[in-house]
# Entry
Amino acid sequence: MLIETWMWAAFTALILGLLALDLFIFHKDAHVVSVREATIWSVVWIALGLAFGLVVWSWLGAGRGGEYFAGYLIEKALSVDNIFVFAMVFAYFAVPGKYQHRVLFWGVVGAIAFRAIFIVAGAELLKQFHWLIYVFGAVLLVTGLKMAFGGETEVHPERNPVLKLVRRFIPITHEYHDQRFFVRHAGKLVATPLFAVLLIVETTDILFALDSIPAIFAVTREPFIVFASNAFAILGLRSLYFVLADMMYRFKYLKVGLGGILVFAGVKMGLSETAYKVDIWLSLGVIGLILISSIAASLVVTRGSTARGKRQGASALS
# Structure
């Protein structure tokens, strides 16, 4: 079954509707999101993502359904790596807990918009220049190996080029003004630190998207499947952040697992036009096995970690 225009329109309306409900109904007041609340919402978002996968399966067949689930799992796994970076950015700017959801909400809106652009561009490039499959595969291989075996990476918000550029034209206050990104000071429009945080979150996610989107193209070339799996995985990122941010030190081998997933995606993409093409269901099993193994090993090794171990683990993950 072909992807028709009305499917894109219906899916876009669904995503916008879910975002509107989240912002204007369920989280309209600024408050510190508890782990219990975040856990409930994480379950809801994951359930919605899986349910949409069943819809894809019903509409487009088992093959497309498998592609959606593989893409969803890849994006969900890679999005966990974003969480630690977000935690460091929030700590650097001392963002009050009750304002963090607001930043993450608009960060998700921006992430979905930018990813839609990247997905359309990537699909068109692969259509026009078929040999880019091997370029994308090689990039995933190199990125995966660097993620798995590279040294520590650090986040330096003050060096962000976009933030530096914005500061040249828009003054940024030193104080937070509730959940507002802009305020008027002495009759002049100025940005608040919350806007600076949003810029860092958005630009950081764009860098992550450069890994995750090619990885999903390794399991499907259908833009609708790529976008849908991305969108539902990203929608649950905010709630997952509040669940996992304080225990990221437990995921000691997460980067190794994510690196392995990217390497596998690179190999799969390189073999996609050969007789050794990897079946989607085998791909889904390998991705799930790598992810589960890395998480399980991490939880076993860090069991009983102290506060000192927490700091060391966080440093290792970064």
Observations:
- Confidence is low (pLDDT under 50) at residues 307-318.
- The CA atoms of residues 68 and 228 lie 8 Å apart.
